[in-house]
Specification:
By secondary structure, this protein is α/β, with parallel strands linked by helices. The protein has 3 domains: 163 residues, 2-Layer Sandwich (Aconitase, domain 3); 90 residues, 3-Layer(aba) Sandwich (Aconitase, Domain 2), CATH 3.40.1060.10; 172 residues, Aconitase, domain 3, CATH 3.30.499. It contains 16 helices and 19 strands. The strands form 5 sheets. Strands 5-4-3-6-7 form a 5-stranded parallel β-sheet. Strands 17-16-15-18-19 form a 5-stranded parallel β-sheet, with helices on one face. The N and C termini lie far apart (51 Å).
Length: 468
């Protein structure tokens, strides 16, 4: 019998009752992350059935999707002034539900408030070998630590709250081997966009992807989180990277990790999670990034992506494809370079961490955002915001003419007050470019923080390599 992969090791450790031909496995969940959008139905289910939360200490709660990114001094007095009624109600319901069921909430005023997939790693709740779920598809982010993170629906959120388990069929496995040294101006966001462009939005369907290779090993933890975050955009169930020295150094000393002798034991256990040399995968893909260019999307799904210097492919007789580029108002057979930009958004669970903000600051320092562009820079958490301000990055942003906001999901999705107007084009560091994702009629071009910053300065889609 061959060796086990990282995914298989984590899977096997969490199966409570094995699956059969007729029934899925009962699968144990170590950490349940919740936010205000996908929990109301779940908490109502508990109330109606007279059930309690099974393990409140294994629930991490915050508010991010619906929260405004302008300061809130007092929840009751300020919220309605800066929020639409529906998101305001979601926020108030989250406060009540967590209080009713004994769950600690990192809400307004908490030093740990922020995007769910940013604060989990920051406080050390995300750890190698854990199973982590959230009513949010981008839970794959946590796989950067060798955890198995995946999104679940609202009904399953209720199941995990009540039982700390899920019914699951074992996914298949896929290895993505990334090779080559990245050139200046090219980063993790470009790697994952290029991969999705190559394998498609369904290329990973039914699989857990393990990212491997020297290129991946050379990334810091924040860059690895960007890679794993967008695994879901390739249709995969989860994305994972085996723990190594970089992982351990990131976690060392964080609030929720084991301490003292328990830390040493944990590190030994975590390092043993790496795939065995003879582990096999159901599918393998190799991506050489030595000549990779910055990537930009041109259509309405993340696989509709092109190197920044290359022309938008011609749709020919493909009517669905043509409809997409017509919506985006882009021309086939021409590069996206030079396309007029209305808004630039730096943020989201994909690209709102310190590495991202520092890269943006390098480009904005001493430059000005173009007059025709509104630029929002939104930190992923209160911790990121504080660190950025300690480093003076906020002053660089505001001097350039960008808006420096409070932590939250912001313009990643049109669920709060940060939205695009109809027809506006946004260069966004977020993860989805569906029609209306950032606001009804809005047009989204996905790109790296560096490309976003260069485009903000130029007023049109621009190549960051020309200003780095």
């Amino acid at each position: 019998m061959g060796g086990k992969s990282l995914f298989e090791k984590v899977w096997d450790e969490h199966v409570v009752v094995p699956e059969t031909a007729d029934t899925p496995a009962v699968f144990y969940i170590d950490l349940h992350i919740i936010h205000e959008v996908t929990t109301p139905q779940a908490f109502n289910m508990l109330r109606e059935s007279g059930m309690q939360v099974r393990k409140p200490d294994q629930v991490l709660a915050t508010m991010d999707h619906s929260t405004p990114t302008v300061p809130i001094e007092n929840l009751e007095e300020s919220l309605d002034a800066v929020s639409d009624p529906e998101p305001a109600n979601q926020i108030r319901a989250m406060v009540k539900n967590c209080a009713d069921f004994g769950i600690e909430l990192h809400g307004f005023g908490s030093e740990h408030r922020g995007i769910v997939h940013v604060i989990g790693p920051e406080i050390g709740a995300t750890q190698p070998g854990k199973t982590i779920v959230c009513g949010d598809s981008h839970s794959s982010t946590h796989g950067a630590f060798g955890a198995m993170g995946f999104g679940i629906g609202a009904t399953m959120v209720g199941h995990v709250l009540a039982t700390q388990c899920l019914l699951m069929r074992k996914p298949k496995s896929m290895a993505v081997n990334v090779t080559g040294k990245l050139k200046p101006g090219v980063g993790a966001k470009d790697i994952i966009l290029a991969l999705i462009g190559r394998i498609g939005v369904d290329g990973g369907t039914g699989h857990v992807i393990e990212y491997r290779g020297d290129t991946i090993r050379g990334l810091n933890m924040e860059e690895r989180m960007t890679i794993c975050n967008m695994t879901i955009e390739a249709g995969a169930r989860a994305g994972m990277i085996a723990p190594d020295a970089t992982t351990i150094e990131y976690l060392r000393g964080r609030e929720k990790v084991p301490q003292g002798d328990a830390w040493d034991a944990a590190v030994e256990r975590w390092m043993a999670l790496a795939s065995d040399p003879d582990a096999s995968f159901d599918k393998e893909v190799t991506l050489d990034v030595a000549e990779l260019e910055p990537q930009v999307t041109y259509g309405t799904n993340p696989a509709m992506v092109v190197p920044i210097s290359r022309p938008v492919p011609n749709p020919g007789d493909n009517q669905s494809y043509r409809k997409s580029i017509d919506y985006m108002q882009v021309a086939a057979d021409k590069p996206m370079l030079g396309t007029k930009v209305d808004v630039v958004f730096v943020g989201s669970c994909t690209n709102s961490r310190m590495t991202d903000l520092r890269n943006v600051a390098k480009i904005l320092d001493g430059r000005k955002v173009a007059d025709n562009v509104r630029m929002l820079i939104v930190p992923g958490s209160e911790s990121v915001k504080k660190q950025a301000e300690q480093e003076g990055l906020d002053k660089i942003f505001t001097a350039a003419g960008a808006e420096w906001r409070e932590a939250g999901c912001s313009m990643c999705l049109g669920m709060n007050s940060d939205k695009l107007g109809k027809g506006q084009l946004c260069v966004s560091t977020s993860n989805r470019n569906f029609e209306g994702r950032q606001g009804p009629g809005g047009r989204t071009v996905l790109a790296s923080p560096e490309t976003a910053a260069a485009s903000a300065v130029a007023g049109v889609i621009a190549d960051p390599r020309e200003v780095i």
